[in-house]
Design goal:
homotetramer; Rossmann fold; Dihydrodipicolinate Reductase, domain 2; 7-stranded parallel beta sheet; 9 helices; 29% helix; globular; NADP+ binding (chains A, B, C, D); amino-acid biosynthesis (chains A, B, C, D); N-acetyl-gamma-glutamyl-phosphate reductase (chains A, B, C, D); NAD binding (chains A, B, C, D)
């Protein structure tokens, strides 16, 4: 049994990680931590005011990190479900202890110091770890993940955006002179579990935000190797991301070419489901670890549809998938 | 034209009041105030981050109360859409200036000093105004409202609970040895526009709260003259209250008796709609100023169903209705 | 008082029309009709199983058309809130009687017989009326509407799509070699009040549909004079449309140019609201007759956001707006 | 491996059963059936228009029952997720073949022929099987379930209503002269997957229905041995039941007595979770197989709160739980 620590376990992704790990046959949860200032410190994760759905499943206490420093050398795996700047600050400590770190924040996703200054508002101090970090887009980087110490689990939008596009780019089917237009709608959980007027029940309604300025745009462009126009939206639902990607294919590309490209990369991948017919709806993936992909082609216009649960394939499930790959377990262990 | 000031205009009830008053042929909005510390001070009520639905309808600024003190003698009417303790503190000032005050908070609803200490957490200082305040349950207290200077607009739950029960009590149809069981479900707007984890979009789901301890229970019991068991619930919708009231009638009471009692008091009241058949659903009243009432009787068991929009008949619309009654306008002016 | 008949009054748009007309100072509702086979025939529109929200507001019966044939010569105005093929079949009858007809269906929106065969599945028989029909995009065709006998009220998506684009095209700001990408999400009411698995509460979740094949694409392209890529989506909400339009401007076009174009055409139009700052959210317009427009420009990429209530500015409100224009009433009479 | 057939697999409970059984280590799905007239016959359960969430998980075809008659002697277990009258008609056939039958309909829940005539609208023909049927309230009837051939899985409301009340009745804590008042709100999935205006997305809003006439009232009363007042409501959510039960305890009963009674019966039951503090919310159980119970006592007034997922503990999960008990598997196998 490998021992895993979840840092930032009281948030939505953290609680979901705890749920997955609690069912995992090869993992033992060594601890769940919250910030020392958190009002949740000392409570059970399954407290009736926290995550009561986990009652009987993960009745472990949320404790400050200090409670675990004495046993840090016994911990094999650390999941960071923390704010970007917190991950940035604490990841090196765990890495230096020899832990394998899965960071769900954006702190190690793009190997560019300027990127953090511009989009995350802090100066990145750990170029060495940026160089070593592997981007955990599981279906594409599994070979690197197997040997990585620091896995930067992709953002929710970037996962939904890249999975449908990468096979087409890899196969040279896209007309890369025209930037793909990515419109995506995320559930409210994407903004985290912190109270704010923006996620007040009565204030939420479908709307676009972060036009031309969302930090996931450069993350997508970097790992895709292709500029894109990315417009995020908030939808009035709890979980899920629906992405509609309009792009242009090269002259002569057919529906069969698209389908062949998607199948080439995903037919044997258990957590990406390609639709031969129809287009996926959000409900197909809510609560499940999949990314579902469909498309339609007319002349040289291609529309790709992808859906995922932002907290699962877009966060916790992909983190566990990366862990499974890293340690040689079956890729879907504890996920389905 | 009468001049009206809305204190606490940035909340849900306050904004709705502003909308109603902006359409009222006999009212001019003299000002909209917010707390001096509010980040909204200086913005338009219709600002895109506040109440953009009012753009073009109520493009007035939110200003601290201090901006209006110089003109207070010109103001005829004050609506207090403020926290209970704030209403308590400031109502006397306006009253002493001769304004007619419609208070949407609970600060003057029950003439009992102990009630405020126990249920609202402050010691009430204004017994004189408590004595003079008229409880603004519009269909029942219109004669008193016509001559009142301080109208305490009822709470949302108490309106939905009392309107169906009062005719039956007035006609002596209820077996008063058995307490009516009032289960009511409110939309999230009932908790106000302040960010908190309780109204986080992802945290809201149907649940009971305040069992045996909600402040609306004694308000209902006081004005009904009948003890009740009141259990409030939060529902996953923005606006509306649905109340299910289970009670016991006296031996021999028939369906016709119930219907006759409801019609006796409401057939000529424009904002209470009695169903001869079927039961009202929440959608019947959302966005509208009505309270709809239906019922079913079996043996001596009576179930009353009432629905209203908590922000309208349960707050802003009833306040305007009281104002219309107070000044002799048609009761529904600007409401439908 | 002008006498108006609403054909197909039991649907969502029809009921909304009845509500608006009931408040209109210059209109008398002459009748509400439903199909002779309808189970609703004989019921009140405000029946508790139909539109109980209208109880006390529009307590008129739904009757078969045959009940009105004797008085058809007294009817001035007919609203057709009917299926496309039904509008096609019956509009000429009313037109020949001299009625002014506002058709909310798609039967007379595009002057091309082939369009109906391909996208609506029937062969259009009334070329003469197609030639005479005026497309009721109110802000753009008011001069024509004033003298029209047959007004084809635009579809919900086409209204949301065209209003932001038309000023830019009119001012020559768009790079028309690149087709605008229109992604729009509609509430479920857009599919009408007929029970089907597609609008079953538990089946609805955000998803794209009608890729490259929705009938509103050619309607948009025709009246815009510009090809577009239009992708409709169903969202899990009752009312509203949110459109995100990604397009390319000509070299040198600035934010001020865009704003100036929008203001040139809409600053004096009461039902289109242009945002100088921020982007509109769906909640800004639900229940209201507006179309709200915002935008962002970066380099030559322009994103336009428009929102409207699909049943109001996208259907019933625009129909009433057209009627107000046609008869010289204030454009917003009974709407706000 | 035991072979199981699911009859009526295309509905919500049927699809959920298929999901649970697909993960069960001791069960092999022998077949999924739908009515011969069903348009779904021949499709995969995971078809994109049916239950696409099951793609890759249960890619089995839906076939008419006739396809399985040749292998019926090889089938060990039959789940009936069918209409009440269909279960009534076909259950004896499977029972006579020696199958163990878990019926999710109401056809065998109450041993009274008159009950079916009055509440289900058909004359029950199988008194013998009614006599042999065991009511599958798993926490209470496990000893009988172990030896039963026909298990009548309880209704969703009856499960939520009985689980909190039975311990108090068993311990003699309730004042049985006063009928418990059970108000419950169910998600829309409770009405099944058939399109109707009642479950149209735009028609659903919180409302009471079936006052004094719902078939679950006599089911509850029969198995509780206590008359009750039961008022069902439809809520605007997909899955879940929230029940609020107001009752009267005997003189002298304390909070500790209530808690002790609940713990006595449930402390060792894995699928009932008793709250020592706070009250459960719907979100605690949606997607999970639990029934959560909380309460509050004041004087002799007791309010019990229970929540469950109507499709899981209220249907499919309890059916699998019964199967696990019947065959000696761990009670929660494949459920958590």
């Amino acid at each position: 049994m490998l021992k895993a620590l979840i840092v930032g376990a009281s948030g939505y992704a953290g609680a979901q990680l705890a749920f997955y790990l609690s069912k995992h046959p090869h993992i033992e949860i060594a601890g769940l931590t919250v910030s020392e200032k958190s009002a949740d410190a000392g409570k059970l994760l399954s407290d009736f005011e926290l995550h009561p759905q986990l009652k009987g499943l993960v009745d472990l206490p949320l404790l400050p990190m200090a409670d675990y420093t004495a046993i840090i050398q016994d911990i094999d795996i650390v999941f960071l479900a923390t704010e970007h700047s917190v991950s940035h600050d604490i990841a090196p400590y765990f890495l230096e202890q020899g832990c394998i770190v899965f960071d769900l924040s954006g702190a190690f996703r793009v190997n560019s110091l300027g990127f953090y200054t511009e989009f995350y508002g802090f100066n990145h101090q750990h170029q060495t770890w940026l160089d070593k970090a592997v981007y955990g887009l599981a279906e594409w980087n599994d070979k690197l993940i197997k040997h990585a110490q620091l896995i930067a689990v992709p953002g929710c939008y970037p996962t939904a955006a890249q999975l449908p596009l990468k096979p087409l780019i890899a196969e040279g089917l896209l007309d890369d002179t025209q930037w793909p237009v990515i419109n995506a709608v995320s559930g409210v959980s994407g903004a985290g579990r912190k109270a704010s007027l923006k996620n007040h029940f009565c204030e939420v309604s479908l709307h676009a935000y972060g036009l031309f300025s969302h930090r996931h745009q450069p993350e997508i462009a970097t790992h895709l190797g292709q500029e894109v126009i990315f417009t995020p939206h908030l939808g009035s639902f709890k979980q899920g991301i629906h992405a509609t990607i309009t792009c242009r294919v090269k002259d002569g590309v057919t529906t069969d070419d698209i389908l062949a490209a998607l199948n080439k990369y995903y037919a044997h991948k258990p957590l990406v489901r390609v639709y031969q017919q129809g287009w996926p709806a959000l409900k197909s993936v809510v609560g499940l670890p999949y990314c579902d992909i469909g498309f339609a082609l007319k002349d040289r216009h291609l529309i790709l549809i992808s859906v995922e649960d932002n907290l699962l394939k877009g966060a916790a499930a992909q983190a566990v998938q990366c862990m499974n790959i890293r340690f040689g377990f079956d890729e879907t262990t504890s996920l389905i």
